[in-house]
Amino acid sequence: MPVGLLGKKVGMTQVYNDDGVVVTVTVIEAGPCVVTQVRTVDRDGYDAVQLGFGDKPRRLASRAARGHVADISGRRQKERAAAGVEAAAKPGCEPKSFVREFRCEDASHGMEVGQSLAADVVTGWKYLDVIATSKGRGHAGVMKRHNFSGQRATHGVKRVHRHGGSIGQSADPARVLRGTRMPGRYGGKRITVRNLKVVRADAENNMLLVEGAVPGPNGGYVVLRHSAKNRG
User: Fold this and answer.
1) Domain assignment of residue 192, given as a range
2) Helices and strands in the chain, H and E counts
3) pLDDT tens digits for 116-128?
4) What is the pTM (predicted TM-score) of this model?
């Protein structure tokens, strides 16, 4: 049973559902994902399955990244073999540009190193959770970051039309309260969108259509997993 998928956001479009109603969907290139490692309690202290998505050019991959997925006959590997240490299984694929782990209850969750997962693994899922990084907007003011209305644009208000205004009291408590909404870094955070409905899964083209919006720009990496609260 698959634990999840990795993919890339392609964009948004509209399709007709089974009832003939137009729904807005996000197109995700889901897979193919390769199982690069299976972690166990005995060896790693926890059970997890590691997946990799997207081939990274060898000129951009470090030697450690290449040795993680294939046998490159490194010095440390030869020393461990001479000492009688059993080498971990390797998928024998190209280095991956996007690698994530999925925790699971048992050692392998029914998967083996080197196994490939496509978009059809989510066919039995009605809803899924999508994890992605939102668009980074840099340092933003309170009107853009917190949707403040700003100050009046009339006489008496001089060059502070987009300012936030007062941030606290005077002598009591004589400090700015924690959590006050102020200018700062906006976006660029890890966001999880829950309970997105699976509209269509195309295993031949590795495309997945989910109803609704997904964080991040087009071309951004996403993590797909079975909905934690709605597995209907």
Assistant:
1) 1-31+119-136+187-232
2) 4, 12
3) 888 888 878 889 9
4) 0.82
